[in-house]
Amino acid sequence: MWFQLLKNGKKVNTDITNGEREKYVEASQNVSVERGDEIVVEKFSSTVSSLNYAKEDLPQKAKEAVDLAVEAGFDALFENHKNCWLQKWETSDIKIEGDVAAQQGIRFNIFQLNQTYSGEDERLNIGPKGFTGEKYGGVTYWDTEAYCLPFYLSTAPQKVSRNLLIYRRKHLEKAIENAEKLGFKNGAALYPMVTINGEECHNEWEITFEEIHRNGAIAYAIYDYVNYTGDKEYLAPMGFEVLLGISRFWSQRVNWSANKEKYVMLGVTGPNEYENNVNNNFHTSYMAVWTLKYTLEVIEYLKKEIPFLFEELVKKWKFNELQETARWTDIIDKMYYPRDEKRGIYLQQDGFLDKDLTPVAELPAEDLPINQNWSWDKILRAPYIKQADTLQSLYLFQENFSIEELKRHFDFYEPLTVHESSLSPCVHSILAAKIGYQDKAYEMYLRTSRLDLDDYNNDTDDGLHITSMGGTWMSFVMAFGGMRVVNNKLTFNPFLPESWKSYGFRIDFGGAHLEVKKQRELFLIVNHSDVVVSATVWGTEHKIAGNSTLEIKK
To answer: Which of 12, 52, 129, 155 has the most CB atoms around it within 10 Å of its CB?
Structure first.
């Protein structure tokens, strides 16, 4: 650390006393002042890590960094800092006219996301609290892939989101070790629920061993990235290697039920952590089957486009394509999903309808939040859902379900959802918008965007909910903007909340930088680049020439 005091523009030359203790350094200097004097404190400090330097070199490297900062001076450093943030806001800002609370909420979330992760180092990831609190210890969850990746895909250079995927590829060998500890073989990979270096850091068995849907989130992130960017080069070797390990895990994790004459998935915990050790959680099973399907698609692509590299990967991973894919196909064709034919919905898990299905709205106010007022025995026997579970699959795979199916599921599950996870409101906001429940979409958006500002869950003192802030961005762009990328093509089904005059957001897609605006009677896409972009708006495809504006009245 380097600092100096200036009194009325002149350096103060009194003695400086330095001190240090655990995780703390200080320097003090005495100065006499009178009314009207101006005191300026100028301080430069540096943080260096053994991630980048040998431990014995850290003191010298820290001093060198401080010396460089002092040489540059505050004004130059601040100008550089300001320009970096201007670039971030130019690509990620969201503007809302007519709703100060909503505007404040979304910008607060965007700022925290940009401040937390820069994507410059593929060894690093995003902690649930970022740098705002020590709860969770800075570890990585599946939240990154499910809720943060879409933000960086749309608003940051492609390298940023790619590095989030590379982080998981670097941990593949550890994921295989994790699976081996549980008895899995042949390169099956189970990614950890909580990690820093690829090893499992969680200590609750019902999470560590059973909340395995996280493997599906990591597989889906590969699809999400390739679908958005078109970067199929990532599939070989890195993407395929991860998908192969996860597919091998799913193949071994299911078992054949002679009673049902179907494959089943026993003893799991879904995203709703108010249920443990259940059989045939719909979301987990659906993600498993989807992963197998996608891996088969990737294999066909690699065999066609880069057969020599694929053959090398087959040898490296001892992949018995004929035998292994035959089992995958059988699982895909014969997977069991619990279903209530009378209601026309998939059930969260076996036995869900045996619960007392009293809606959350009928619970006494003093019972909420239930995670602070009920025993775990009572919670586990109740029907109440912490966050989107079955609806998580319907959100991810909206195109696989009709609007009527989405409505039936939403109408059944949302009234039973207590939204006591910060990750819950965003998914419900997106689905509500999809099925035309615009007031509910707005309600859920406000809840997610102001979760920490208004301390909805009475836990902000532990730190901000950084990963759910990615969900806030999703709920805006995907709910109000109705944005989806289907088969590498942009689609929009936008609407404007009644209390707003207009909104606008920016995205990068297909080499173009687009500004999307919704006014009361007008929808606009401004192409701020030379690249021609296709976009489907309200079901009609449009070509947007470089440096031009698409205007649609509605």
So the answer is: 155
